[in-house]
Write a structure and sequence with these properties.
- This protein has 585 residues and is mainly beta.
- Helices cover 5% and strands 43% of the residues.
- The chain contains four helices and 42 strands.
- Strands 6, 7, 8, 9, 10, 11, 12, 13 and 14 form a nine-stranded antiparallel sheet that branches. Strands 28, 29, 32, 35, 36, 37 and 40 form a seven-stranded antiparallel sheet that branches.
- The radius of gyration is 26 Å and the shape is globular.
- The chain starts with a helix and ends with a strand.
């Protein structure tokens, strides 16, 4: 059969079966190395690292299910196969030294510092049983897949530690070093610097913090620890800063710690030179030096929304939907050379949004950069990723010939039906072949102006169970007697209230008995935030597998719980249509 005819037949079948054409052509960004399929809500992937072996093969490591998995590619990243699994280990980076491959991280989250060795390119690994076999130090250590740096005959790496078990995100930064000719599995081969905590007095923020540092050799030949820097918004905080980063967004400031390698001492003087403008400083990054361009390169997440909310669910640090390639000649001034991956660039995302490319590790390969990403593609949320993906930046030193496409076009879902929510009431109606019933809980009453209101008890529903008991919810029941199956893939709505303090909790059921949560979050409802909320993307529901293929005759229920409030009578109404996306299967 001619190739053109075969292609047309495939396209005709896809159109006939109502499958999204865009997903057929490019359902994922890059090549999927690993996907958490069995239980992606509970078992997420993390901490990827990539290595190009001296023999030319690629290795990728990543955390999954309390261990680190190793994948190999012998065809330049086109296909991947899992070759080993290492435990106990997390937050590890790969590196090659004197013909052997190493993994260096911690035994658990905030755990002992460990290193593993493989003498057959990642297929088998040593076991860090004691101080002579890879157990380098005991304690509450933290790290990420950050670079190993070889400098003046020694091997350097950054770590952080927690001093107090009950405050593990109070990071103290330090570095470790070993001679290149030493046995890297022996604890006695490694020395460490002092550790430094970031003092809140140095910069005003909710809790200024540094973590996941990169050891870098400066143009002057000195060592620094280039730190990811969190400066989240806080109430009544002055966000002005002087020095190299003056006038820049707070989420684009990185911190530099000086290292005195002779005296094994780290020092932070809190001077203007210690803060640099670095777009993407809020996320983990990898910095490497390129001897061809005689400059430094990094891949990280640039934040495009400057909404500086003090709410943790609404902070602009909750977006990792734009991946950029940065370049600097001096480590002080950084330029965005190109955008690598983007999904819905410019939108203000929240902590429950489900797309992100993050924790990227990468390597040079001639004129290209090969990189690995912790990718959330219809994941539980942007942070809780379900995929490890591989990709390539071709001719990275050159300006790209065309801009990178926005991947939002691959996540457009057809509308199953809409509900006129401006006059939400208890009723049943048809939307094409779909039968829809709106049922109001006993704690909600119809108003003359439209919308619903709380009943005269004037009580606050403190939690989800209280809201259910008080009848402060409504159900959207959906079925279809004409088809076998359908899916529910997106949910979009806009709410208006006349008082603050309310939250929504969406749940779903496919049997009318068991109701499961959509995300683990309650969705706060700010007062007079209609314009702000309009730019929010819908809830993406593909990770909730029972909604992927619903028995059409039995149908499904979407339940909206109304939690919180006060003792005053309050009206809540949906300003625009409730839009439910999906398809008949």
């Amino acid at each position: 059969m001619p190739k053109l005819i075969r292609t047309l037949l495939i396209l005709s079948f896809l159109l006939y079966s109502n499958v999204a054409i865009c997903q057929f052509f490019n359902p994922f960004p890059g090549t999927v190395v690993f996907e958490s399929k069995k239980d992606p809500i509970k078992k997420r992937v993390g901490s990827p690292s990539i290595l190009i072996l001296a023999i030319g093969d690629y290795l990728i490591s990543h955390s999954y299910n309390k261990s680190v998995s190793i994948h190999s590619s012998k065809d330049k990243g086109k296909t991947w196969s899992k070759i080993s699994q290492v435990a106990p280990l997390i937050w590890a980076n790969l590196f090659e030294h004197k013909g052997d491959v190493y993994l260096m991280g911690t035994a658990k989250g905030w755990g002992d510092m460990v290193i593993y060795q493989s003498k057959n390119n990642g297929e088998n690994w040593s076991s860090p049983k004691d101080e002579d076999t890879g157990l380098l130090a005991k304690g509450l250590f933290h790290t990420a897949p950050v670079p190993i740096v070889k400098h003046n005959g020694k091997i350097w790496r950054a770590y952080e530690e927690a001093i107090y078990a009950d405050d593990r995100r109070d990071f103290h930064a330090f570095a470790i070093v070993a001679d290149e000719n030493a046995d890297l599995l022996k604890a006695s081969s490694w020395q460490r610097t002092n550790s430094i905590r970031f003092d809140e007095k140095w910069i005003n923020a909710r809790r200024p913090n540094w973590l996941e540092g990169n050891i870098v050799v400066t143009p002057e030949g000195k060592l620094i620890d280039f730190m990811r820097f969190e400066t989240w918004a806080g109430k009544n905080v002055n966000y002005e800063i002087e020095g190299m980063a003056k006038g820049k967004p707070r989420n684009e400031i990185a911190a530099i710690i000086d290292i005195d390698e002779k005296n094994m001492k780290m020092e932070f003087k809190n001077e203007p030179r210690n803060f640099v403008h670095f777009p993407g400083a809020e996320s983990k990054f990898t910095i490497r030096y390129d001897s061809v361009s005689k400059s430094y390169w990094a891949i990280t997440n640039k934040i495009t929304s400057q909404v500086n909310s003090i709410e943790s669910y609404d902070g602009n640090w909750n977006q990792r939907n734009l991946l950029v390639l940065l370049n600097s000649k001096d480590l002080k001034t950084w330029e965005v050379k190109r955008k690598i991956l983007k999904w819905n660039e410019g939108v203000h995302l929240k902590t429950w949004d489900t797309f992100g490319f993050q924790y990227v590790d990468w390597q040079f390969e001639n004129n290209d950069i090969v990189f690995v990403s912790r990718t959330s593609w219809y994941g539980f949320r942007y942070h809780d990723a379900n995929m490890i993906t591989f990709d390539r930046v071709q001719n990275f030193r050159d300006q790209p010939s065309k801009p990178v496409e926005d991947l939002i076009k691959y996540t457009q879902h057809p509308t199953l039906f809409t509900i006129n929510s401006s006059n939400l009431k208890q009723e049943s109606f048809s939307k094409g072949d779909f039968n829809v019933s709106i049922k109001l809980g006993a704690g909600l009453q119809k108003t003359e102006q439209g919308g619903v209101r709380f009943n005269v008890e004037k009580k606050s529903a403190k939690n989800e169970n209280a809201a259910l008991k008080m009848g402060r919810y409504f159900d959207i029941e959906i079925n279809n007697k004409e088809i076998k199956h359908f899916s529910i893939e997106t949910l979009k709505y806009l709410v208006d209230i006349n008082m603050s303090g309310f939250k929504l909790k969406w749940l779903y059921s496919t049997d009318g008995v068991t109701y499961l949560p959509i995300t683990k979050y309650f969705f706060p409802l700010p007062v007079k935030a209609q314009e702000y909320l309009k730019v929010s993307p819908p809830l993406y529901l593909k990770i909730y597998r029972p909604l992927n293929k619903i028995n059409a005759k039995k149908g499904a229920i979407l339940r909206c719980m109304i939690v919180g409030g006060s003792k005053s009578e309050t009206t809540i109404s949906f300003n625009e249509d409730i839009i439910i996306g999906g398809r008949a299967l």
